[in-house]
UniProtKB/TrEMBL annotation:
The chain crosses the membrane at residues 12-29. Keywords: Membrane, Transmembrane, Transmembrane helix. This is Lipoprotein.
Length: 161
């Protein structure tokens, strides 16, 4: 009995720490992050395509960054990274391991042309990608603040002979 009484403050602090850890975790923060950054993507790519034929189309992109007014010397860059695969990719890390083509808006910051993608095998395929929207803002003392918005792009396509 004496050993249990001596360890009771330790056991108390372990239970108190565990309670505080689990009670402080909630989904409110996660939901807030999702609401803070919104984007809309309209995919204008074919649903089917003949094997060894070049795919062409476009993606129309709008985001909260469209309302940001850039000051002198501040820049915004939009990149669309696409790869082809046999299944949709579940996360960005998986996508970043693959060979990708890079596309950028040409004359209109909302319209990204997609071209020169050729499928060499028939069957159901997927265009997997990530759209990266970055704003580079000048800060004090020559520092630059980079704000990034990443949006997943998945488009199924049937390739026939």
């Amino acid at each position: 009995m004496k050993g249990i009484k001596d360890n009771s403050p330790i056991v108390y602090y372990i239970f108190l720490s565990g309670f505080l850890l689990f009670s402080s975790c909630n989904n409110k923060t996660k939901k807030k992050e999702e609401k803070n950054s919104t984007s809309q993507i309209e995919i204008k790519l074919p649903d089917s395509l003949q094997m060894n034929t070049e795919m062409e189309g476009e993606i129309i992109y709008r985001s909260d960054f469209d309302t940001v007014r850039l000051k002198n010397g501040e820049k915004r860059y939009i990149y669309l990274y696409l790869s082809e695969g046999d299944s949709p990719l579940s996360d960005f890390r998986e996508l970043k391991k693959q060979e990708m083509d890079t596309f950028v808006p040409i004359n209109d910051e909302h319209l990204i042309p997609v071209y020169n993608i050729v499928f060499e095998k028939s069957g159901k395929k997927f265009i997997n990608g990530v759209l990266v929207d970055q704003i580079f803002k000048n800060e004090e003392e020559g520092n630059v603040k980079i704000t990034t918005l990443e949006t997943k792009v998945i488009h199924p396509i049937v390739i026939y002979d």
